[in-house]
Design goal:
α2 crosses α3. The chain contains 3 helices and no strands. It has 71 residues and is mainly α.
Length: 71
């Protein structure tokens, strides 16, 4: 199992995507390209917990502007 997991889970298989900070419109542009190509999941980190203004802004302005799952 350890040989399999090191091959399958290696970070070398997935190029690093640099951190991004910007306005909602800039973030839509940044995530929109991969989303248009079929990427349907992103791992996001919102710093400053327990404050949630950034998360609320993302939910109200960025997420609705990205392609939605057609299912």
């Amino acid at each position: 199992l350890s040989d399999w997991s090191s091959d399958v889970c290696s970070s070398d298989l997935y190029p690093a995507i640099p951190a991004f900070v910007g306005t909602p419109a800039q973030l839509v542009d940044h995530l929109g390209g991969p989303a248009d190509q079929g990427i349907d999941a992103f791992q996001l980190v919102f710093t400053g917990w327990p404050e949630h203004e950034d998360l609320a802004l993302f939910a109200s302005e960025v997420r609705p502007a990205l392609p939605r799952d057609p299912r």
